[in-house]
Amino acid sequence: MSISPSRRGSGLLGAVGAAGLLAAGFAALPAGAAPAAPAQHVLLLSIDGMHQFDLDYYVAHHPGSALAALVAAGREFTRAQTPFPSDSFPGMVGQVTGGNPKSTGVYYDDSYNHALLPAGTTTCTGVKPGAEVTYFEAADRDPLVLDAGQGLPGLPGSILGMTGNPTTLIDPTQLPVDPATCQPVYPHSYLKVNTVFEVARAASLRTAWADKHPAYEILNGPSGTGIQDLFTPEINSDAPTKPSSIDWTKDNALTQQYDSYKVEAVVNEINGHDHSGVQTVGTPAIFGMNFQTVSTAEKLPTSGGRPGGYLANGVTPGPVLSGALDYVDAQLARMMAALKARGLDTTTTIILSAKHGQSPTIPAELARIPDGPVIDALDAAWKSAYPAKVDPLVAFSIDDDGMLLWLSDRSRLATSFARTFLLGHSGTGNDITGAPRSYTRSGLVGVYAGVSAQHLFGIPATDPATDPRVPDVVGVAQPGVVYTGGQGKIAEHGGDNARDRLVPLVVSGAGVVPGVVGGPTQTIQIAPTILSLLGLDPGALGAVALEGTPALALR
């Protein structure tokens, strides 16, 4: 469907309220259905930042494209929605576990845990719990190089020689520590439930994946061994080599170059090799990659002297984004051609979706708000009102186009204080041109605090909260708000804006009857669908058992 600017909104929270957040409908297989095993391979592609309306627009204007062919031959779910928060980590984890954060325990790639100990702790007795959970580039052995510190010569051209076991490239001193064992908690150990990769491995099927940080070893699942070939060049490293003043996300041409390494890895895997193209191992049963190109094209104000983002209507892609969509289409065409050349096109199912969307898309809506001063003001107000209480109030926050706060005091007094302050705070940010733009209510339409924040995520509520992972305060941003201290981006994700969460979902190939499904769908349904396509039991997924996540109806 084509989404016009008049259809924008505050997302699912605005539509159905907090109680309905995790009770949204599914486009699902009939009860009791037992799908056969029509596919030998599932190729999963996450076009990060892509909206359903982007796909609609591109197919309408490029009817001869690979994307158009994929949609025409596939089943398109036009109301697919990501988990909330709409961050990359819960988005991707949801696609391969079948779970929302309440089941996976993963709320963001940079979060907080009230029960773990700070990174670097080596003597755990008597240490006060509470730690940032750092599962992004900061966890790399060397975040400034593309191979994350492996030490490959000849970078970036040699990057396909990067290890398929990136757990070895994570610096354990950057990880939170488990007080019970006094050992670092690696990403895969943090995940509460298993993944499709682990289920496939248990069935002696081969698995592979490519993503943007070594911390995506979380997709291995709790066993740590779900993905046999995991290729994770560091996207936030200096580009094209160290030292550089920019990383691979700051210029869209560089992002395309970066994504092309992962495309090469996937084509190598289609051709029966490992990601490097050196070893012959057979085409994986489950494999794929994420694309960053569309996401950076939406976020960058300019790239290569051309404007990023959308035109004034918020639907038509601008020059950089148009080029990014063309790039993704060309890479999809390359993969489809490789499958056909290998005779795998009739036994492979392609699933195309996105970890997240992005907002705002209408340039005039943009309101950039520096979040640091907002949090500082909250802490100062708390200290003034309650000088004998713990200080600062905010233990950790992550604010992109929404607010997640973990408080050092989880009492009703503290969570209510934070909510009241945020809804009463005003200030000045800047607009798309950099001109001053005033804001009220900290840029928020609503704040969920304490028990209401737990209800939001479907966590059994206690007062104060006892779940160590769930945020204590959740702020839902006004449309157009991006929390940033500068002017380096014009869009973000992580929040509940409809354009953060309404993404494409197309299943095309073996086992699929073409058609369009307009009912509510969640991207977490991808996980049980993958297993159904391969003839494996979706019920083997812990999150599917916990949440009742059904496979998509493909016929």
Number of strands: 25
Helix content estimate:
25-40%
Low-confidence stretches: 1-25, 29-35
The shape, in one word, is globular
Structural class: alpha/beta
The amount of beta strand, in percent, is 15-25%
Major sheet summary line: 6 strands, mixed
Q: What strand order characterises the main sheet? A: 10-1-13-23-2-24
Mean pLDDT: 94
Number of helices: 16
Fold and architecture overview:
With 555 residues, the chain is an alpha/beta fold. 27% of the residues lie in helices and 17% in strands. The chain contains 16 helices and 25 strands. The strands form nine sheets. Strands 10-1-13-23-2-24 form a six-stranded mixed β-sheet, sandwiched between helices. A four-stranded antiparallel β-sheet has the order 15-16-20-19. Strand 6 and strand 7 (183-184) form a beta hairpin. Helix 8 runs parallel beside helix 10 and helix 9 packs antiparallel against helix 10. The longest helix is centred in the middle third of the chain and has 23 residues, at 319-341. The two termini are 20 Å apart.
